[in-house]
Amino acid sequence: MKELKRNIEKYITVLCERYPVLKSVENEISKAYLLLEESYKNGGKLLIAGNGGSAADAEHIVGELMKGFKLSRKLQADFADKLIKENSEFGTVLAENLQGALPAIALDGHPALSTAYMNDCEPVLCFAQQVYGYGKAGDVFLGISTSGNSKNILYAATTARARGMKVIGLTGAKNSKLDQMCDVCIKVPQTETYKIQELHLPVYHCLCLMLENEFFEKGN
């Protein structure tokens, strides 16, 4: 696997300075980033699933990727021109306000689909159904589970592998079934749920910052 660019690697350096305990997973963070970078460069997308607080984390990640995080992410000039040519009134507003996006979908956020599937089919397979429907080879599935053993995440990861997707896990320190299914598993060094979640946030913020720098920083 290729090495990180210096302007990208600096984010992991800063992360480990702020949270020294995460030094133990810096290599996994690098590997996860490179999987995401490759997917996005090849037109892929990120599917994310978690339960409870981890579902909130999934939504949080989507919010950082689908719009500007630290950067303004101005539209490319050619697409801005297309918008204005399409409709001068609405296109001008769109060209001034739309932001560059990295496609990401949180699988907890579709209540009509989720409740229909859970009512009609097997509830624990709800995330797996969405991975099957949305996913394609070259996409990435990020499963967030503090235990690493949440069954709906494991079924989704299995489906993702069968679809030819890469799988990233974000868990706690203990060995888990999800760890065994992942291309990369970031096992933050805590074992209590709330402490694990407290470390998940700076990890995925770091990943989002690196992706934004790669795809939207001028000169890249």
TrEMBL record:
Keywords annotated in UniProt: Isomerase
CDD domains: SIS_GmhA
Record flagged with keyword Isomerase: yes
Record-linked InterPro entries: GmhA/DiaA (IPR035461), SIS_dom (IPR001347), SIS_dom_sf (IPR046348), SIS_GmhA/DiaA_subfam (IPR050099)
SUPFAM superfamilies: SIS domain
Keyword Isomerase: yes
GO BP terms, alphabetized: carbohydrate derivative metabolic process
Residues covered by the SIS domain: 36-217
EC number(s) stated in the UniProt entry for this protein: 5.3.1.28
Gene3D superfamilies, per database record: Glucose-6-phosphate isomerase like protein, domain 1
GO molecular function: carbohydrate derivative binding; isomerase activity
Origin superkingdom: Bacteria
Protein name: Phosphoheptose isomerase
Species, as recorded: Blautia luti
Lineage: Bacteria, Bacillati, Bacillota, Clostridia, Lachnospirales
Name of the gene: gmhA_3
